[in-house]
Every structure is written in structure tokens, then in C-alpha cells.
Amino acid sequence: MAFHTYGCRVLQKFLEKGYESPIYKKIMNKLGEMMIPLCKCSYGNYIMQYLVVNGPLEEKNKILSSIKNNFVILSLDKFASNVV
Fold first, then answer.
1. Which listed residue, of 6, 24, 27, 41, carries a Cα 20 to 30 Å from 63's Cα?
2. C-alpha span between 42 and 40 (Å, rounded)
3. pLDDT, block means (10 residues), the chain with 84 residues
């Protein structure tokens, strides 16, 4: 869903309101596994931007650590540079 035009908005709304849902942690884990491709995606980068600003502290730290480790690659990409 995060790679799709409308799916990324649906997912973002779920992340805003669904943090008490039992599948929230599973979705967060899957997003963490796909962090670099999501940052480089024209739609997925919005999910990553949202998580950097509004996500749980644990997830923010994981994303920021991954950004730090891949800083040059991400900063040179058209969409990932928005996350950086």
C-alpha cells in the first residue's frame, strides 16, 4: 500500500489513528524492513516523512539511524532527499 498513490494516504491515516490496533506493530515492522525503498518511492517517502515527524520514538530512532547510515545515497535521490 505504501508504494501506491492512494494506498500511502490510507496507510498514513491508519498510522495516525490505528496505534492501538493489534496489527499496528506488524505494519511498523514491515515498514522498517522496507525503509530504503520506501524513501526512494514517489509515494512511500511521504510515509517515511510522516514517521520521522510523528511516529513513535522507537521507530523514529530506527529510521534516523538508517538515514544516517545511508545518508549520501538517500540525499542524492529525488524522493529520498525529502525524507533526509
1. 6
2. 7
3. 91 87 89 92 94 89 92 95 94
